[in-house]
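User: Second chain of the day. Same drill as before.
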Amino acid sequence: MLTLRGPFGSNISLDFRARFGESIELQCFQFVVPPIEFRLVRCARPLQDWQQSNTDIYDLQHGPGVKEWTRDGHSLVNDTRHRNDVMTCGLLSRDLFMETRGVGLDFLLLVWLRESTRRNR
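Assistant: Same format as last time:
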């Protein structure tokens, strides 16, 4: 897990390739101290609409409110303990930024890497 801080209204890089390898994926993230709104951006193009502040873990395939879903005929469970039977898609770290909105304070963001893609340098 990585811990990132920044002032509300700033952009923070989620590109961890230099530390963990070219194909590193992010599994999920959680704001401990959330900005008013946030969104993920790659190469100046939003990957999602602005989301209101949220202190639940945000699975990068499904939001924290989704407990179970089906993909390709397989039933999946949104389990943040990462049991062996849980299959989720990560998000490539390449050129990825978190944009935030808000004023005055700092946000605190926790980021979990997809361990199967981690290659320490």
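The radius of gyration is 14 Å.

User: Great, on to the next one.
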